[in-house]
Specification:
The chain is of the alpha+beta class. The protein has helices spanning 5-32, 43-97, 104-125, 179-184, 215-221, 297-309, 314-371, 375-399, 404-408, and strands at 146-148, 154-156, 164-168, 171-174, 186-187, 193-197, 206-212, 228-233, 238-243, 248-249, 259-261, 267-270, 273-278, 286-291, 294-295. Among the domains are: 54-187 and 328-359, f41 fragment of flagellin, N-terminal domain (Up-down Bundle), CATH 1.20.1330; 193-292, no CATH class. Strands 6, 8, 9, 10, 11 and 14 form a 6-stranded antiparallel β-sheet that branches. Strands 7-13-12 form a 3-stranded antiparallel β-sheet. The protein starts with a helix and ends with a helix.
Length: 409
């Protein structure tokens, strides 16, 4: 077979070019530390790298979201703890106000203390996070969602929509609670109903703790709507109960009118509720029992302040403060529920953060396995390929100088 000189030259050149290309790729791998520098190096591996980098970027963003949400919830947790401390001080001050031996000056001092506590509570309700956003404004962008009206009641300009943070695919966690739920929409009374002494009472009857003692009977009583009862007393303690909605006596489970005789320190029960009383009623005294509405904590505090600054008698003052203390306890329960929710969400965030930390190690290991070069092997290849190229170049240099004339010579 005849081999032309030009063909031999071209083949040698092609071989050297291929060796140079291979050597260049190996040099790129050694200098970058990566096995795949362009998609053409390994199309399948390149697709895996893109997918793994996408997952890692998502995890990084979710981790950043978790950190931000944790910071915001930590701020809320600290704020709610401070709110509870203020409410405990309010409770203590109101209990002091019930002391019948206090002078008008003493009660005035307590009213001043409650005014300061109310202002402190207002400041806490308007707490902002590290970005200057109000904690309790919902998704509203208002920086101060709470203000006091002229009558001392609270005005909330935020909304009742919780803000959420995405912490995973199709997974969100509320990063705060709304002020409407924590401070404004507080159930009155015991959360189910309010029992209060009649404004025109002249006896020493004081309404104490009251609650639902038979859930089934209470549910039946409220099935048709809010209740509105009046307990009517005579001087000897005997009483009857009227359904003000119907204008008829309230009947017991046997269909007989609810009646009885109250004695000091006793209680009255009907339709699944129990009202505890102290003192003695005068003839015509009443106790109103109504399904509870809602009241903001600022209105409650202003009510306490007004009561302490008034000339209310011992019995009247005690009855008014008792009702306001019920609202304070309901607010404390609302804050406590919010604290539990915050703690639960922070626990969820911590678990997800730990999961993302573990996943990051797993995905980076997988990415390294696909993308990174075996440096020892690459350096060895670089040395071999360099030697092979040099050998090819030397062989070509010798071959290309050969000719028939050199042989004849």
């Amino acid at each position: 077979m005849r081999i032309s000189t030009s063909w031999m030259y071209q083949r040698s050149v092609n071989t050297m070019l291929e060796q140079q290309s291979t050597l260049s790729n190996t040099q790129d791998q050694v200098s970058s530390g990566k096995r795949i520098n362009v998609a053409s190096d390994d199309p399948t591996g390149s697709a895996q790298i893109v997918s793994l980098n996408h997952v890692l970027a998502g995890n990084t963003q979710y981790s950043a979201n978790i950190t931000a949400a944790n910071t915001r919830l930590s701020t809320e947790s600290d704020t709610l703890n401070s709110v509870q401390n203020v409410l405990n001080s309010v409770n203590d001050a109101a209990l002091q106000g019930i002391n019948g031996s206090l002078t008008a000056e003493n009660r005035g001092n307590l009213a001043t203390e409650l005014t300061q506590l109310r202002d402190q509570l207002l400041q806490l309700a308007n707490t902002t996070d590290a970005n200057g956003d109000a904690l309790f404004s919902g998704t509203s962008d208002t920086s101060a969602p709470f203000q006091l009206n002229a009558d001392g009641s609270g005005n909330y300009t935020g909304n009742n929509v919780q803000a959420f943070t995405a912490i995973g695919p199709q997974l969100k966690v509320a990063n705060t609670d709304t002020g409407a739920n924590v401070f404004m929409n507080i159930p009155q009374g015991n959360g189910s109903f309010v029992a209060s002494a009649g404004a025109a009472n002249s006896g020493s009857l004081v309404v104490g703790d009251n609650n639902v003692t038979d859930a089934a009977a209470w549910q039946n009583a409220t099935a048709s709507g809010p209740v509105n009862y009046t307990i009517n007393f005579q001087a000897d303690g005997s009483y009857t109960v009227t359904d003000n909605n119907m204008g008829t006596p309230v009947n017991d489970s046997s269909g007989n009118p609810v009646t009885g005789t109250y004695t000091d320190g006793g209680s009255i029960s009907f339709n699944g509720l129990t009202v505890n009383l102290q003192g003695s009623p005068a003839d015509g005294d009443t106790v109103q029992v109504k399904s509870g509405g809602t009241q903001d904590i600022f209105t409650t505090l202003q009510g306490m302040i007004n009561t302490l600054n008034s000339n209310a008698s011992g019995t009247e003052l005690t009855n008014q403060l008792n009702r306001q203390l019920e609202s304070v306890k309901q607010t404390m329960a609302s804050v406590s529920n919010a604290q539990v929710g915050v703690g639960t969400r922070m626990s969820t965030l911590d678990q997800k953060q730990t999961a993302y930390t573990d996943l990051e190690v797993t995905y980076k290991t997988a990415l390294s396995g696909v993308q990174d070069v075996d440096m020892a092997q690459a350096i060895s290849n670089l040395s071999l390929q360099s030697t092979a190229l040099q050998a090819s170049q030397q062989v070509f240099a010798k071959v290309q100088s050969l000719s028939l004339f050199n042989y004849i010579k």
